Amino acid sequence: MAEFLVALSEFDRQRAWVDLGYPSLFDFLHRELGMSRGAAHYRKTAAELMQKFPEIVEPLRDGRLCITSIVQLAKVLTPENCREVLPQFFQRSKLEAMAIAAELQPATAAPHRDVLTSPAVTTSLPRDSWEPLTGKLSRLHITVSDEFLAKLQATREALSHTVPGGSTAAVLETAMDLVLKEHARRKGVVKRPRKIARPAKSDTLTAKVKREVWARDGRRCQWPLDSGGICGSTSRVEFDHSLTPRARGGPSTADNIRLLCRMHNDLAARQAFGDDWMDQFTRNPREVASARLTQGPPSG
Description:
This protein has helices at residues 2-13, 25-32, 37-52, 57-62, 70-76, 82-85, 94-104, 146-158, 168-186, 207-216, 262-273, 275-279, 285-292; strands at residues 128-132, 138-142, 237-241, 257-261.
């Protein structure tokens, strides 16, 4: 296990998972190697922590440090306290590591957490209830159906551009804002009248084409993987002119459009226009590094 984690750490440092078409190390572990989501999370955390703190390698090799305590260790370990804190996690179970982490870094505010369980195990709770935590924060307890959870996940994916990695509270609040805005529009409570729609330009990506591509691609990133299949991410999905880039006169037709996640859309543009040109539009340096480490099939 320790040797695997050392190799995985180097694999992640080089961001080699990008070469294989995956949007993250977690996706590579979960989908390519077939690990459970929990196992992938532990190993991803360990690989990232090794890059920052090589001191954990030997304790992992000789068994003093357990992989199940890595997640808790990662929460509190810093360059300043490494020598003092690391030994406190030796020979500790997962629960013991959680207690140590809580003692070293106690919560200074009300904890934010999402508690979602199936109706079968929530019969003891009121249908809707909330409890105050601070003067401005409360915890809401609700019983939801499987359909609700599916819609919540779909909404989180739909809002992944505006609320990337958003909590359930952030996603629901954003959705409620949209409902209230639409309600105000229907009631005529708007600041200015809507403008008269103008005819679409010939290169405009129309709603009709978007619907066709969205349905055809199953709202998933279509970037091909070396091992077969596609990326399949549903987060931050964008429309990409795949055969001929729009900047080179490519038509906005369904045959020339595909869905790509943000990372692979950026990668496709870099293959078409080069890093020097695209760097001026890319704000995230990690995305720039990702794109520069990979060479895939030409795209636009």
